[in-house]
Specification:
80 residues; mainly alpha; 44% helix; elongated
């Protein structure tokens, strides 16, 4: 996946007729936090800021839904 800049993310939302606030609410984020991520005022290292940056395509990464299992390695299935 090609990463995009904050300006590219804003432009893509605008081209699709979606406001940043609409996108934030649809993805269950605080619009203020999304604006902070897009404005570069958050480091996006962990938590919701990280998730916002990944979903907007601003950074590579995965979204961990269960912090207790963050370091677990996924088991590969063995074909019988």
């Amino acid at each position: 996946m090609k990463l995009r800049t904050a300006e590219e993310a804003r432009a893509e939302l605008q081209a699709k007729g979606v406001s940043i606030t609409q996108w934030a609410i649809a993805n269950r984020f605080s619009p203020n936090l999304v604006f902070e991520v897009l404005g570069g005022r958050k480091k996006c290292v962990r938590g919701q800021a990280h998730e916002i940056a990944v979903r907007l395509g601003l950074k590579a990464g995965t979204i961990c839904t269960d912090p207790a299992k963050a370091l677990d390695t996924p088991r590969q299935r063995v074909a019988a």
